[in-house]
């Protein structure tokens, strides 16, 4: 389907029925509960680097117990807080258990506060400019220079249109830019057979053909790799390129090889539905920052539930927990070729036979690299800047998601990106 629609102002939907099913997140819940307790348990199970005394009660370095650096650091902090009592292994273990109980209560309090919070995303989607299968091209109006945004395949596109006052798309539309958002949608039976080439040389290129000419192409995270490949393939349709938190040198991430080694074990799990499930994807993200999610829910439990910060937390968590499966062929390419072989930085990644060589892109480029990114490390993103001649590099004081949808997103990314767009 290919149709145009007049600009329609965003409208609000009714609030959800309070009797509806409670929130499910964070997903997978059992994993995050285990991770929430694991740091304190690691302190209990790990010997101190320099125990106050040796002898009965204090485990030795040769005990065979796990030797976690995080556990060692936590154990040292707890022992130091006890003062002279730290010389007693019984006092140390009792202090660890008290810490565990406090942190468990704080985590459960934060989870309960999130699950019962009344706020929910209320934005209505803008008109659809083009649609094919599960994919839609959403037109946010604005009347200015068209900019087509390409999100990742592993999360909902709504991270770029999150909530009232938290939408990069609606911010740009209000500043004289015409944002278009490619929503990949939920992969059906056809999309679950797609490769990266099907997405890039197929759906993305056809979306480019349906969009106005002379557009700027912008990609976020994995979507940045898709946008880069499409721009190299279709310079006749793309005048400039913006890459936001886009990985390139996967070898710069010390966890990349570990992630790639999981692929054979995922094969039997992907077989029934032809995709990597949402919970498996969420587990992979949890590996990148195992203590991060329990910590943020403990912090959320201390927030005023009526505050803007609490509402932003809720809609972001709702987005995270409303993920989409990743088609098995794409999962094999991403985990095996990108994370495993580092095919991007090695010059071995090709789409429909055409190598994706950043040096082949001759147009203007804007790269936004979040300084606190734990998903796409700056060390992975910066080599792409070096490979793109004349790229404008913006180091954002934010994290991977915070840069596009957090409380400080307007200063961290929205306005610097807007200024660059106005110069194109």
Structure characterization notes:
This protein starts with 28 loop residues before the first helix and ends with a helix. It has helices spanning 29-45, 69-82, 89-116, 168-173, 196-210, 222-233, 256-261, 263-270, 278-288, 292-300, 308-321, 328-340, 378-387, 402-405, 409-422, and strands at residues 128-132, 135-139, 145-150, 177-183, 215-220, 238-244, 275-276, 326-327, 350-351, 354-355, 365-370, 392-396. The model is unreliable at 1-20 and 52-66 (pLDDT under 50). Helix 1 (29-45) packs antiparallel against helix 3 (89-116). The protein is of the alpha/beta class and 424 residues long. It contains 15 helices and twelve strands.
Please supply descriptive tags for the structure shown above:
globular; single chain; 15 helices; alpha/beta; 424 residues; Rossmann fold; two-stranded antiparallel ribbon; 8-stranded mixed β-sheet
Short description:
The chain has 424 residues and is of the alpha/beta class. It is 43% helix and 13% strand.
């Amino acid at each position: 389907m290919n149709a145009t629609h007049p600009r329609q102002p965003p409208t609000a939907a009714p609030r959800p029925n309070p009797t509806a099913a409670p929130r499910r997140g964070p997903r997978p819940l059992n994993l995050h509960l285990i991770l929430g307790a694991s740091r304190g348990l690691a302190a209990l199970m790990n010997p101190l680097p320099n125990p106050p005394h040796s002898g009965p009660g204090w485990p030795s370095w040769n005990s065979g117990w796990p030797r976690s650096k995080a556990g060692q650091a936590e154990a040292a902090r707890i022992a130091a807080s006890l003062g002279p009592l730290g010389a007693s292994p019984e006092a140390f273990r009792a202090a660890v258990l008290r810490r565990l109980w406090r942190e468990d209560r704080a985590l459960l309090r934060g989870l309960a506060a999130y699950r019962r919070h009344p706020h929910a995303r209320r934005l209505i989607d803008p008109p659809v400019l083009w649609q094919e299968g599960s994919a839609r091209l959403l037109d946010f109006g604005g009347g200015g220079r068209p900019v087509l945004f390409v999100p990742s395949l592993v999360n909902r596109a709504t991270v770029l249109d999150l909530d009232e006052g938290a939408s990069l798309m609606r911010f740009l539309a209000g500043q004289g830019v015409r944002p278009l958002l490619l929503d990949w949608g939920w992969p059906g039976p056809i999309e679950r057979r797609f490769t990266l080439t099907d997405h890039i040389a197929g759906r993305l290129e056809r979306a480019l053909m349906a969009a106005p000419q002379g557009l700027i192409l912008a990609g976020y995270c994995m979507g940045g790799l898709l946008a880069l490949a499409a721009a190299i393939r279709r310079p006749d349709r793309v005048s400039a390129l913006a890459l936001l938190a886009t990985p390139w040198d996967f070898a710069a991430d010390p966890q990349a090889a570990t992630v790639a080694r999981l692929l054979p074990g995922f094969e039997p799990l992907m077989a029934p539905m032809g995709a990597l499930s949402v919970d498996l994807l969420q587990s992979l993200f949890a590996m990148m920052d195992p203590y991060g999610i329990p910590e943020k829910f403990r912090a959320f439990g201390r927030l005023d539930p009526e505050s803007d910060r609490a509402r932003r937390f809720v809609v972001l968590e709702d987005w995270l927990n409303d993920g989409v499966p990743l088609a098995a062929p794409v999962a094999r390419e991403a985990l095996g070729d990108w994370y495993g072989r580092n095919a991007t930085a090695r010059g071995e990644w090709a789409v429909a036979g055409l190598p994706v060589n950043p040096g082949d892109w001759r147009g203007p480029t804007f790269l936004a690299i979040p300084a606190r990114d734990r998903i796409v490390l700056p060390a992975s993103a910066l080599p792409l800047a070096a490979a793109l001649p004349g790229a404008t590099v913006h180091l954002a004081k934010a994290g991977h998601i915070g840069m596009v949808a957090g409380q400080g997103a307007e200063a961290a990314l929205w306005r610097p990106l807007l200024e660059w767009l106005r110069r194109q």
